[in-house]
């Protein structure tokens, strides 16, 4: 730990002495009770602040002891506003002789990626098209209305009910992609507006919790496919994923389930993690269930409406799991390797070929690489930044993987 001189404030009074730190010192502060991180060469002690962090304490804790500059830029749409929360946490800076990146990361690659992000900003690729999202919400509401009109006009026969279930499933899946947009703050310029509409879409249209989604999903984005940090690959012994976890289970003889058949019971377990959690205290979620049962109990009764909802959830959960996992499960799943932002995201994600159907069916998550690199970018702009990303990956030999939709589904089983 180095020393620094005093710095005069606006009042003429000397400010606290600037302290300089080495990476060796900073990396020691990555414990649950002691967390430092670096943003643009400034060192912050976030030990106490982590528990008040709006994105959850875990996501910020996953960057403890590291350079979090790119993660910070990726998740915050108004860094200037966030700076006022960071200022009281500032404890010093990197020593002048220390590199900006920790653990020997390629500084030129990091700088080139930040230049790419600045280029995307200059191209207005972080500006949303209101018409796109208005029409998207409109087609979801139209499907909900169509489902009610169908059962009102044609009754509750088997064929009508099956068509109705497919319409509601499609509506739910598309609402899932839409809530994802607002959850990532990629629609409105103000975070508060995104948060309000996010609660409406995920709560009133889907019956799930925005807080639950935020808690899990931002961890996934910060450290995709990293054991102990990404909840999406923490399967609680149901599955063993990646190349290293099966070996670990084999050596320790941890045999909770017949893992040699996990590709078979995968189909049966999809429903379990994808049923949105219900909380009696979640007003928005309550409004969804009230609306649903008020709409369908007159036609199907209580038991029939509950059965219909369960069937729709079952169908939607398969849609959700196959789309979200085809980009990640076939990729590298391993322990923390402390890579730079670009390398870590691309190693854990792959793209699916673009087409009108693929864009709609996946909610533009076929551009998973671009989405992970720029989570606050509106999805209708992913195709514009894609050539820049591919070019940068080619320059540094970072594998950029893209495949057809069918092959992606087959690779999940593989």
Automatic annotation (TrEMBL):
Localization (cell): Membrane
SMART domains (alphabetical): Cyt-b5
GO cellular-component term (any): membrane
Membrane topology, record value: Multi-pass membrane protein
Alphabetically ordered keywords of this record: Fatty acid biosynthesis, Fatty acid metabolism, Lipid biosynthesis, Lipid metabolism, Membrane, Oxidoreductase, Transmembrane, Transmembrane helix
Top-level taxon of the source organism: Eukaryota
Domain Cytochrome b5 heme-binding: 18-95
Transmembrane segments: 131-151, 157-178, 293-315
Gene Ontology molecular function terms on file: oxidoreductase activity, acting on paired donors, with oxidation of a pair of donors resulting in the reduction of molecular oxygen to two molecules of water
Metabolic or biological pathway, per its Swiss-Prot or TrEMBL entry: Lipid metabolism; polyunsaturated fatty acid biosynthesis
Biological process, per Gene Ontology: unsaturated fatty acid biosynthetic process
One Pfam assignment: FA_desaturase
Entry's family note: Belongs to the fatty acid desaturase type 1 family.
Protein name (record): FADS2 desaturase
Species, as recorded: Chunga burmeisteri (Black-legged seriema)
